[in-house]
Amino acid sequence: MLKRLISRFAGHEARKGKMPYEEARAALESHALKARRFLAGRPDVEPEILYYLAADEAVDVRRLVAANPSTPQQANKALTDDCDEDVRCELARKIGRLVPGLEADETHRVRDLAIEVMERLARDSLPRVRAILAEEIKSSPHVPAHIVKQLAHDVELMVSAPVLEYSPMLSDEDLVELIAGARVEGTLSAIARRASVNEPVSDAIVASLDVSAIAGLLANPNAQIREAALDKVIEHAEAIEAWHQPIVMRADLSVRAVRRIAGFVSSSLLAALCERRGLDEETAVHLNKRVRERLEEEGVKEDTHSADTKAMTLVQEAQTQGRLDDEFVMDAAGNADRRTVACALAVLAGVPRPVVDRILISQSGKAITSLVWRAKLPMRVAVKIQSAIAHLPNVKMVMAREGVHFPLAPDEMAWHLSFFGISG
Known about the structure:
The chain is mostly helical. The protein has a domain at 304-418. Helices cover 63% and strands 0% of the residues. The longest helix is centred in the C-terminal third of the chain and has 20 residues, at 281-300.
């Protein structure tokens, strides 16, 4: 009987218009789960039926109703309190796509209800729900500004980062305010990656002296940075290697800035400076001289490449002997052997060494914890690396749950790693 009933409904797809209320109601009265699922996912079912199904006892039926673009806003509002998180996630994904296009097509009442649904989802207790909503509306210029600002101030980076990086609804004044009051690691880095960063925003990022954010700002070709702000970066850059390459690659360096940078960057970066166009003869001669001097200095000092090779050899030997485990990494961290720790994490996590280095200098306890999780090492290793290698203050450290467990969900840790180009 159910098969014949579904066949009748399926045949209705070839006809225009809504499915008759009486036919749909008959299916509901049969109490057949397959029929309810079938109806819950159809865009042509009468709104009353979808409203009825929004309270269905079966979670998968409610998920289909939450994802259905034809579900009435009153039912969507009811689903914002659903006990199942996947239902609310489906609803957030749908509302994020629907609301930007409502103004031209819907009545004020419908639009107001849809915005109320979005407001409720933006306050959802589950970060995953808020993050899905933020991802859906991040680039839209047609969503309420107060919802965008609320998401931008969220205490979870996975929620705030999409709108911080992409939303056109955030003004320079909003961004400067967010930078000044930032309490979440990664807030400034997300802003630094925006498609366009104006001078007041760049000034605020530079004033923060946030290592990761300034590295991202320097690497952003569309970031407008005043000469005074670049001077401040250069004042601190000698001790912060993460800034060397991106500042050398800036197209807007003055001759004075080029000369100052030449005083501390490596010979390879000096060579890149020598290749810049528009250098006067005096500056070109000065740079070539610095290249020769730096090569001599690097020949006298312990070769960095050699030190890295030695650390990787130790790690590979430990791996061959079956000793590349949590104890090995704990010992290296306890000896403040940053190179060996980085090489071990690179091998165990299957991540390029430069990416590991970026994570270790990011000052992000969550990113470091996520990398250790990917390396299949226990949480105690993450705590040790945060303190002994990254030197994070206590307020920035991510501590174990119940003393031993990772405190972050796997999908959240995968999300933090995606910021560094790590996927899969």
